[in-house]
Design goal:
It is built from ten helices and twelve strands. The chain has helices spanning about 1-20, 45-50, 55-60, 135-140, 145-170, 175-195, 245-250, 255-265, 285-295, 300-310, and strands at about 70-75, 75-85, 90-95, 105-115, 125-135, 210-215, 215-225, 230-235, 275-280, 315-320, 330-335, 340-345. The chain is globular and about 65 Å long. Residues about 15-25 have low confidence and may be disordered.
């Protein structure tokens, strides 16, 4: 009898799940596989852009990451967008350039899924990423409190975004719709933070800060600063419940201690790290010099490494032997800036 009741409850629950909140034409859609790339894996172009370095020519080579994406641009902003699920899911990348150096100064990624409910989706309603080079005068300005400073930086983020999207919005309905939604998200979020500034105390932590959205329900936001760059990440939907576990959230702040910790875990599989000095290779300058020698001595190995690192923004940690008489040479560990995962490692002979 008990098993019969459980079966009835299970069937009843499934029926509610299938028909809840949708018309008669939608139930079958709930059991369709989410077409790849999934919403959390779309921003390939976003991660390839290096602020302060990438030029407009660089950006144009990889801004269209997926099939059927459309290119839009103004005098200082380049973007791409696309949609699917009968226009219920859409996404966009955009990069804004400095008027003098013509290098990337701000980059954005947005994806919206109005139907993230079927069993094989990641249930992410919205994701928004913004990385921006902030003027020093803004970062160094005096504020009444740290909470006030954090709120001011968030306000500045949405101001820059609005200015950058002005021209692109006229060219694409998707970008216009996305811009309106991002404005709404920031308005809701800032209203709550200004009402209770202490909420922002954990804004830079892995947990981020929970906030409510008027139609999309709950979401989380994290904001960090590094090397004059402000990074903001927002996720809304059930997918945000494990926000602090997401690789892209963890990778937002890859400072020297974090990189060495990640690299050391990989290095221990190859060497006794106690006999080595771990050095963060800032700007990958040491690696670029070493690669020339590797290319000359081991062309096949150099070609293999090039393929593994191609198209990725990576950070490098090098483990150098403490003793000159060591039998092995330097060990290089390459960490993906997008997800804080080790791409590969190479040990010199």
């Amino acid at each position: 009898m008990k098993s019969g009741k459980l079966l009835k409850i299970g069937v009843f629950s499934a029926v509610i799940f299938i028909f809840n909140g949708c018309g008669i034409e939608e139930p079958l859609e709930r059991f369709q596989f989410e077409p790849r790339p999934w919403t959390s894996r779309m921003p390939a172009a976003f991660y390839q852009v290096e602020l302060k370095k990438s030029t407009s020519a660089d950006v144009l080579t990889f801004i269209k990451s997926h099939k059927k994406e459309y290119l839009v641009q103004s005098e200082s902003v380049v973007g791409s967008w696309s949609e699917r699920k009968k226009t219920c899911q859409y996404w966009m990348n955009a990069v804004a350039f400095d008027d003098e150096s013509f290098t990337a100064q701000r980059k954005y990624f947005l994806t919206v899924d109005e139907k993230p409910w079927h069993p094989f989706a990641e249930r992410q309603k919205l994701r928004f990423d913004a990385w921006m080079v902030f003027p020093q005068e803004v970062l160094e300005e005096s504020y009444p409190s740290e909470s006030a400073r954090r709120i001011a930086l968030l306000k500045k983020t949405i101001e820059y975004y609005r200015d950058d999207m002005v021209m692109l919005r006229r060219e694409a309905r998707v970008i216009d719709s996305g811009s309106m939604l991002v404005n709404q998200v920031f308005s809701n979020m800032l209203y709550q933070f200004e009402k209770s500034p202490s909420f922002t105390d954990t804004l830079a932590s892995l947990d981020g800060v929970w906030f409510d959205h008027i139609t999309l329900n709950k979401g989380r936001v994290r904001m960090v600063e590094q090397d004059g760059i402000v990074k903001v990440k927002i996720k809304i939907g059930p997918y945000a419940n494990r926000f602090q576990k997401h690789k892209d959230v963890r990778a937002m702040l890859l400072d020297e201690p974090a990189l060495i910790e990640i690299a050391s875990k990989k290095a221990k599989r190859h060497i006794d790290t106690a006999g080595y000095n771990a050095i963060y290779d800032f700007e990958n300058e040491l690696w670029e010099a070493a690669f020339e020698a590797i290319e000359a001595a081991e062309p096949k190995q150099a070609e293999k490494l090039q393929k593994e690192l191609k198209g990725k923004n990576y950070r490098t940690v090098v483990f150098m032997p403490k003793e000159e008489t060591a039998e092995t040479g330097n060990l290089w560990v390459f960490i993906n800036s997008a997800d804080a995962e080790v791409i590969t490692a190479y040990q010199e002979k």
